[in-house]
Design a protein that fits this description.
This protein is α/β, with parallel strands linked by helices and 489 residues long. The protein folds into three domains: 36-126 and 231-277, Periplasmic binding protein-like II (D-Maltodextrin-Binding Protein, domain 2, 3-Layer(aba) Sandwich); 135-221, D-Maltodextrin-Binding Protein, domain 2 (3-Layer(aba) Sandwich); 283-487, MetI-like fold, CATH 1.10.3720.10. The chain contains 18 helices and 13 strands. It has helices spanning 2-27, 36-43, 72-84, 98-103, 118-121, 165-173, 185-193, 204-213, 242-257, 260-277, 285-317, 322-336, 340-350, 359-385, 388-396, 401-431, 443-454, 459-487; strands at residues 45-50, 53-54, 58-63, 66-70, 87-92, 109-114, 124-126, 135-140, 157-161, 178-182, 199-203, 217-221, 234-238. The strands form three sheets. Strands 5-1-6-13-7 form a five-stranded mixed beta sheet. Strands 10-9-11-8-12 form a five-stranded mixed beta sheet, with helices on both faces. Strand 9, helix 6 and strand 10 (178-182) form a beta-alpha-beta unit. Helix 11 (285-317) runs antiparallel to helix 17 (443-454) and helix 16 runs antiparallel to helix 18. The longest helix is centred in the middle third of the chain and has 33 residues, at 285-317. It is found in: Cell membrane. It holds the Pfam family SBP_bac_3. InterPro entries: AA_ABC_transptr_permease_3TM (IPR010065), ArtM/GltK/GlnP/TcyL/YhdX-like (IPR043429), MetI-like (IPR000515), MetI-like_sf (IPR035906), Solute-binding_3/MltF_N (IPR001638). Keywords: Amino-acid transport, Cell membrane, Membrane, Transmembrane, Transmembrane helix, Transport.
Length: 489
């Protein structure tokens, strides 16, 4: 038995190595010649990814009932698209996924106040720097007498967005600093306001935006002395995209010559005033409604496919075929042994190298595959819970194995596992929130947008909690109703 397990383990490891190697090879730029600019023109679309939670660079507004991503960066890429005579297409996702999207061909450009550091230049190409606003620190206004300059941050808790220049600078340049990284700038601002951190490293324009819109906050200069080739904001493109980089730099040169960035910042400021006129949660009700629609859609579809896949895997587990049993065991163990977030990113970015799968469909596929593994184990437990006497009685009536499983075993198994299956459905609603990392506009994604737009950290989270509770409570009651009917059936 141990030898058999070892063989299967070896096969699994070899298969994983083959998949990773194949994906890595596909990720390599295999174009004989650079055709990045031609691809954009032939497609007649410039696809740009951004994380719209970083005002005034990019953020979302609710203007006259319509959602729109605006900001200085959006004006920059709009100018680039106009110069190329193509349509601008904006895709949203987490900041730490932007460069991955470029490397895997999900977009032509990534923009979002991205600093062209040496480390990042190893993975992607960058345009010329189009804006350099400088570095600052956000602090609580109540600490202005305690923290007057960067020297006062020695041995303090400093927050910065994970993977950013601000994070690296705080690590290197502030003695004894305890640097805490988070994926979202909105989470960092909340951490600052609740005194989980003493200061937040952030670009000066964003710091100014928060100070203007939140009276409890203040800012101090960073005092950093930095080389000009890695500070400021630049646009990221796939390695080898020389023609697209050159075309982009021509537009950036025009922007600098005409001093358009100041005009773009003024425009962003006007949009920010639209957001802060009314920061009540009722004003943003459409955001939450849109988020819950996507959350429910993903959960329902994934639950259906998860049950179908789970039944198939459970039946394969009871098969006499060693191959089918091996596939079922390997799949279940592998899926349960890896995080859902990694699976979502692999489906969207990894498989996306071969087939360009939209973000929503990628999220549904990943959540369905994940749910199937857990449902398979629940169903297997349910089948094992059916008394052996039922099998013997069915055999005495001359039922075939297929009819035995269909009419005797599975109905009783589902009756036994209904509470566990219901718990899996409820968990799925909450766990599906992970799809927000690839830009699916579920409830968590929309909550973060509202937090960024309104400069309110806690209230949007509270609203999201209430919505999740209402949905899961209603589903629990519905499942309990059907469980009661089963008991009396």
């Amino acid at each position: 038995m141990n030898i058999l397990k070892s063989k299967w383990l070896s096969k699994i490891i070899l298969s994983l190595i083959a998949i990773i190697s194949f994906t890595a090879l596909l990720s390599i730029n295999t174009y004989a010649a650079d055709d990045s600019l031609n691809r954009v023109k032939q497609r007649k679309e410039l696809i740009v990814v951004t994380s719209p939670d970083y005002p005034p660079y990019e953020f979302q507004v609710n203007h006259k009932g319509k959602d729109k991503i605006v900001g200085m960066d959006m004006d920059v890429v709009k100018k680039i698209a106009d110069d190329l005579h193509v349509k601008l297409v904006i895709k949203s996702m987490n900041f730490d996924s932007l460069l991955v999207a470029i490397e895997t061909g999900k977009a032509d450009m990534a923009i979002g106040g991205i600093n062209p550091t040496k480390e990042r230049r190893q993975s992607v190409d960058f345009s010329d720097i189009y804006y350099n606003g400088g570095q600052s620190f956000l602090i609580n206004k109540s600490d202005v007498n305690k923290i007057k300059s960067v020297k006062d941050l020695k041995n303090q808790k400093i927050g910065a967005q994970t993977g950013t220049l601000q994070y690296d600078l705080a690590k290197k340049k502030i003695p004894g600093a305890n640097v805490k990284g988070m994926d979202k700038s909105t989470d960092l601002v909340l951490a600052l306001k609740t005194h989980k951190i003493d200061a937040l490293g952030i670009e000066k324009p964003s710091a100014e935006a928060y100070v203007k819109n939140d009276k409890t906050m203040a800012m101090i200069p960073s005092g950093y002395k930095l080389s000009t080739n890695e500070v400021g904001a630049a646009i990221a493109m796939k390695k080898g995209s020389t023609s697209l980089v050159n075309a982009t730099n021509k537009t950036i040169a025009k922007i600098k010559k005409q001093n358009l960035t100041e005009k773009y910042l003024a425009s962003a400021g006007k949009y920010m005033k639209v957001n802060t006129v009314n920061t009540s949660m009722t004003h943003y009700w459409s955001y939450f409604v849109k988020g819950i629609k996507y959350t429910v859609l993903i959960s329902l579809v994934s639950s259906l496919f998860g049950v179908v896949l789970g039944v198939a895997l459970a039946l394969m587990r009871f098969s006499k075929s060693k191959i089918l049993r091996g596939i079922s065991i390997s799949y279940t163990e592998f899926i349960r042994g890896t995080p859902l977030m990694v699976q979502v990113m692999f489906v969207y970015f990894g498989i996306g190298v071969i087939v360009n799968i939209p973000a929503l469909l990628s999220g549904i596929i990943a959540v369905s595959l994940n749910s199937g593994a857990y449902v398979a184990e629940i169903i297997r437990g349910g089948i094992n819970s059916v008394a052996k006497g039922q099998t013997e009685a069915a055999a005495s009536l001359g039922l075939s194995k297929t009819d035995l499983m269909r009419f005797v075993i599975l109905p009783q198994a589902f009756k036994n596992i209904w509470p566990a299956l219901g718990n899996e459905f409820i968990s799925l609603i909450k766990e599906s929130s992970i799809v927000s990392i690839i830009g699916v506009t579920d409830l968590i994604y929309q909550t973060n947008i509202v937090r960024a737009d309104t400069y309110r950290g806690v209230m949007p989270i509270f609203v999201a909690m209430v919505i999740y509770f209402i949905v899961t409570f209603a589903l629990t009651r519905l499942l309990n109703y059907y469980e009661g009917k089963m008991k009396h059936a």
